[in-house]
Amino acid sequence: MKPAVIIVIALCTSAPLLAAPAPQSSRVEDANAVEAVLARYQQAIERLDLRDTADLFAADSEIVESASLEGTYANYLAHHLTPEIGEFKSFVFSDYKVSVRFEGPVALATETYRYRIEPKTGSPAERLGAASSVLRKESGRWKIISMHSSARRPPNP
């Protein structure tokens, strides 16, 4: 009898460890929601209108752009992104690809893309870009808590 009781106790106490992961349909919905957050950010940049982007980021977010620690998104928006966007006539993304995976309660997203910037004065610039973002759910909505982006000139044809 004792071995049977030990097995039952072991199974009961390990049940939380054996709990099933989130249903696949839930992860698909979460991945779609994460992709939607990233798409909204990208679309705002293309529109050169950043007014509704702060709600895509957590208050304690951290932004890294091309080896520069920019601080929170609020700081990056006020001191870097808004003044920079103000100098552009257009900003267009192309060849966009995104992958999303989950590690516990966070989503990890990797994006690759090309972009073309046409400044109000000067010559257009074309770049290859990549970004890594970490998102977490806050009050049922995915928000970016960390974003690191970088870019380089495309190779000569």
Task: Explain the overall architecture.
With 157 residues, the protein is α+β, with helices and mostly antiparallel strands. It is built from three helices and six strands. It has helices at residues 2-14, 24-47, 73-85, and strands spanning 57-65, 68-71, 88-103, 106-119, 125-138, 141-152. A six-stranded mixed beta sheet has the order 2-1-6-5-4-3. The protein starts with a helix and ends in a 5-residue tail after the last strand. The relative contact order is 0.16. The model is unreliable at 3-20 (pLDDT under 50).
Taking strands numbered 1, 2, ... along the chain, how are they ordered across the largest sheet? 2-1-6-5-4-3
Instruction: Give the low-confidence spans.
Output: 3-20
Order of helices and strands: HHEEHEEEE
The Rg value, from CA coordinates, equals 21 Å
Q: What is the number of E strands?
A: 6
Q: What structural category arises from helix and sheet content? A: alpha+beta
> Largest sheet, if any?
6 strands, mixed
Shape: globular
Percent in helix: 25-40%
Total helices: the number is 3
**Strand composition percent:** 35-45%
First-last Cα distance: 77 Å
Output mean pLDDT.
89
List keywords for this structure.
6-stranded mixed sheet; alpha+beta; 32% helix; 3 helices; disordered N terminus; 157 residues; globular
Secondary-structure blueprint:
Layout: H1 2-14, H2 24-47, E1 57-65, E2 68-71, H3 73-85, E3 88-103, E4 106-119, E5 125-138, E6 141-152
Parallel strand pairs: 1-6
Antiparallel strand pairs: 1-2, 3-4, 4-5, 5-6
